[in-house]
Specification:
By secondary structure, this protein is α/β, with parallel strands linked by helices. The protein contains ten helices and five strands; from the N terminus they run H-H-H-H-H-H-E-E-H-E-H-E-H-E-H.
Length: 286
């Protein structure tokens, strides 16, 4: 909803003529609603920025939050929303920072019982509602962006590629392997092969709860990609239940070496590279 030029002029006069009273009362209402989670100095600074941005937008003529003249106000609202999201405030607590202005305006207009004042308050109230909705949407977008970033970081942390021997890297997979994670696994493995010039890679699926056709396809694609980089892959962690599932589904790994454990896979690679290994014999008690 947009304000007419006349309504915008009255809003500017009201906000400008009672600037100190409005910002002080606005900050007091916010301090009470946020229960001291922000300092009075910080709240007052934010309120003053909003107050100034609203006045500048209203001076542009007919007040419309989507207009070019309200660009600074939108920026201030968006920054307020992002700050609240990062500080752990809820969407409601964020919106209250804007809606509190309605209470302040009502207190100022109650002294004037004229119809014009009432109409102004209704118009001003609708404008504040629009500002609050914009703030809420900005908050949600920021929170969704933070969640997406955290999910990506967790995805990278859940797919480490480690160098376990000279020329040998390993990818211990834990949890479900979907398309997005398979892509991350492939990218990290290929990059590590380039960085370390390793000719062998072990993909350990001990921590994968189940292997179905889709998971097998992801693993096969990763092996093929590694081979294109000149590296041979060994799949370890083939437990009896996994082996039965693979046979039942008719999945074929072709000439890809498979081992029951990561240790067996490493021992297999070391034999290929000519490194002698010996199994520990159990100690005999004398």
């Amino acid at each position: 909803m947009a304000l007419s030029a006349e309504e915008s002029g009255r809003l500017t006069g009201l906000l400008d003529g009672h600037a100190e009273r409005i910002t002080q009362r606005w900050a007091e209402l916010l301090a009470a609603s946020l229960r001291g989670r922000l300092s009075q100095a910080e709240l007052r600074r934010q309120v003053q920025e909003l107050h100034r941005a609203v006045i500048e937008a209203a001076r542009g003529g007919g007040f419309d939050l989507e207009s070019e003249s309200a660009g600074e106000l939108r920026a201030v609202l968006a920054e307020l929303s992002r700050g609240r999201a990062r500080q752990g405030f809820t969407a409601t607590e964020t919106a209250i920072s804007v809606y509190a202005l309605k209470d302040v305006l009502l207190e100022l207009l109650e002294a004037d019982a004229a119809d014009t004042a009432l109409r102004d308050y209704v118009a001003f109230s609708a404008l504040v509602d629009q500002m609050g909705l914009f703030t809420f949407e900005s908050f949600v977008r920021t929170r969704e962006s933070l969640i997406a970033d955290q999910a990506e970081q967790l995805l990278e942390l859940s797919t480490p590629v480690v160098k376990i021997w000279e020329g040998v890297v390993a990818v211990p997979l834990v949890g479900t392997l979907d398309s997005a994670r398979a892509q991350v696994v492939m990218e990290r493995l290929l990059q590590t092969l380039v960085d370390t010039s390793s000719p062998y890679a072990i993909i350990d699926i001990t921590g994968v709860p189940a292997v179905d056709t889709q998971v097998a396809q992801h693993i096969l694609k990763t092996v093929v990609a590694a081979r294109l980089m000149g590296a041979d892959c060994i799949i370890s962690g083939i437990r009896p239940q996994i082996a039965q599932t693979i046979v039942a589904l008719g999945i074929e790994f072709g000439d890809i070496a498979t081992k029951a454990s990561l240790a067996d896979a490493l021992r297999h690679v070391l034999r290929l590279t000519g490194v002698e290994t010996a199994r520990r014999q159990p100690r005999r008690e004398s």
